[in-house]
Amino acid sequence: MRKSSTSRVRLFFLSLLLVLSLFNTSCWDRRELETLSFVLNMGVDQSVVENQYDVVFRIAIPGQLDPRGGKASGTDTMPDGHKLVTVTARSIPEAVSLLGTSIGRKLDFRHLRAVVFGEELAATEGIHYHLDYLEREPQFRRTTYVWINKFGTARDLMLNNLPVIETFMTRYIEGISESMRELGYARPMLLHDIVAEIEEHHVDTVVPLICINPIVEKEVENNQVTPMSTEEYHDEVNKDLIGGETLDHFNRSGGNPLEMIGIAVLQEGVMIEQLSGWESRIYGLLRDNYRYGLWIFDDPEVENRTFAVELYRSRPPNVTIDWNKEDPVTIDIHLFLEGNIRDIQSLEKHVSPDKYTLLEAEVEKIVAEQALELIRKMQALESDPFYFARFVRTQMLYKQEYIALDWKKRFSQAEVTVSAEFNLRRPGMVLQPIIIPEQE
């Protein structure tokens, strides 16, 4: 009897599964993958045609993509799994509709990972006019990354993108963004982050800068990068350049011509300033989105030698603002840092109780000086990308009172003091550097 009952239940479920399978055919959106054309990233530039834009699409060719990703090729070349198409139109949606007349498939943006804006467009009219379509169209994810070309057009940037290791474009975009999040040389920004900060009161948003390295660009031929000779490279390098200190390209040969370093400061959607890689790390400490990074400092005892510290933010900065007093407002900032020694180039015995304080004092001095210099730079522009107003907001009872606060003007006239507290935690894998025996 029990066996018969079990058989009936089993037969019922099998019949139910058979009936349900009849209603689960085809794609959920009634479109087969073979009828779709996926756009992986997109660029927007100011066109030579008045009041029009060059919209660049990188379209995937599914049959030529390696689904495994992360597969290095034998040469520094981009596999022919993507095609670039440029359309000049009055807006992004018009460019999308015009492109559909020649592709042969319906454009699909659900795999779009990055939108790049050209320097001229960002600095003149701004990027905010083009964000509305990206917000309204359901296919655009708010987790799409947004970049700005530091020294040129988005089209040139996309033409010169030749990843070396990660040849799958979407994974390359994810990888470079995560690297910047860890190194601190730029702040990866999603579409959601930019829109939220543009709509927020008393804060200016930032967008990461990406550019083409001119030395590596000269090494590109037939969509391949062939490193130049040592003599040619030495002729090309900037002899007075320290990588990341300024907005200039750092000295490099080989690899992907593209590099992401620095951030653009936007006010009401328009780019008003660009910050270098060093300034971007200081911005991260003040904005409290910094993770960690490798910092290089001058040795306090040996000239022309450096020491390296893996620098962490130990806890949020302590910011005290006396905003109730008449101008100038006083702002006191105290940064809390810790780190590990990664290199002592001079081979001095700095790993000792008395020398530790020497290195810590050097780090505290340099970080505080750079932070104060960056703040004064932003004060001159009446811009606050650090969102210091968040420390005032908690002291107000009503939102209307906070909105009415003329913060950026008061911030530009504020008296600011910056201090840093740094503690060395670990010396690395060795206590003391190499000891060279003295010759008799």
UniProtKB/TrEMBL annotation:
One of its GO terms (cellular component) is membrane. It is a lipid-anchor. Keywords: Germination, Lipoprotein, Membrane, Palmitate, Signal. Residues 29-210 form the Spore germination protein N-terminal domain. Residues 262-428 form the Spore germination GerAC-like C-terminal domain. InterPro entries: GerAC_N, Spore_GerAC-like, Spore_GerAC-like_C, Spore_GerAC_C_sf. Its main location: membrane. It is found in: Membrane. One of its GO terms (biological process) is spore germination. The keyword Endoplasmic reticulum does not apply. Signal peptide: none annotated. Belongs to the GerABKC lipoprotein family. PANTHER family: SPORE GERMINATION PROTEIN B3. This is Germination, Ger(X)C family protein. It comes from Heliorestis convoluta.
